[in-house]
Amino acid sequence: MFGVDIEGYTSRQWLRRQPSFLVETTVPLNRPALSLGSGPRGVQDARRWVVQTCHDIARSDLVECAELGVSELVTNALLHAGPPLSVRVRGTREHPRVEVRDGSVELPQMPGVGPADDDDLMLTFGRGLSIVARCSDAWGVEVEENGKLVWFVPAAQARDEMVEGVVTGETATPVSTQPSTDEMRIDIRGVPLRSFVEFQRHYRELRREVRLLALAHESEYPLAKDLSDLFGSLERDLREGIGADQIDQALQSGAATTDLHVAMPRQTAAKIGRFIELLDLADAFCREERLLSLARTPEQQRFQRWFLNEFVRQEKGEASLAWQDAPVSRRQSSVS
């Protein structure tokens, strides 16, 4: 795991080159999200919950800006978005990040940068994001398939200048749909659906976390930027090439396993092998408590190695190997 090479250095070398304070003071904030109701009580609950979290991680210096920012975001979501609505704190103790998730993919009105005028300073909550832009070291909107989250990294004190927000996610990363003239068929037999769904969920969390960490704190976490860029380069392959539509159909039928039959460019099948290395490197990063997404369990690792290796093996001309026949599957059964 620690021998994976990325951008000229191995993960072990990268971990050694980080400042020691990162290892000592980075504390995971992996507490569950707080679901919020649809009335004014939701704002109060979110504010109280975020303030308590700041105290719990010994970051009372961030309470004022965190409280102002989350009040604005929850009120905005209640007025202009839709359920489900929740609030969560992610990131690290050094750089905690407040996230408010709602069920709308419509982007909020993004304020500009620079000084806020006097009238803007008097706006009540829910009438814009300028308050968040002045109470944050960084902030933005992450668009997802079925909603969005608006996030901010609370500053130690509010400023007169507004920080520019960024938009990332589904609508911000269009992919090419050019057909390939060198397609091959990949058959993946006996895919356990529960394991695949866990894989999909873990990857989405990991992709989001490295992207937001890189946007807000690239200098402190250089590997997050490298991981984010490399995940982005594989985005189309992972979104279109691993049979997600067939998985959805099998889930709707109530099946426990399914066979996947996908067509993809030969070079894409070979490139998926790189994703296996990236997941190993991300695990090392997670275990050093620099990422909120948890490192994979041994069971998740075994499934993902089998699943992703099937693309690589078959690109080389080897016959498909069903999950129930794979050595990693038998090892998993023996420890269950």
Could you walk me through the main structural features you see in this protein, from its secondary elements to its overall organization?
The protein is of the alpha+beta class and 336 residues long. 47% of the residues lie in helices and 19% in strands. The longest helix has 25 residues.
Summarize the structure.
With 336 residues, this protein is an alpha+beta fold. It has 2 domains: 147 residues, Histidine kinase-like ATPase, C-terminal domain (Heat Shock Protein 90); 153 residues, no CATH class.
What fraction, in percent, of the residue positions are helical?
Answer: 40-55%
What is the count of helical runs? 13
Shape: elongated
As residue ranges, the low-confidence spans are 1-27, 117-127, 172-177
H/E order of the elements?
EEHHEHHEEEHHEEEEEHHHHEHHH
Largest sheet: 6 strands, mixed
Whole-number count of domains: 2
Q: What's the gyration radius in Å?
A: 22 Å
Strand order, sheet with most strands: 3-4-5-8-7-10
Main structural class: alpha+beta
According to DSSP, the number of beta strands is 12
Average pLDDT figure: 78
Note the gap between the termini: 24 Å
Strand content: 15-25%
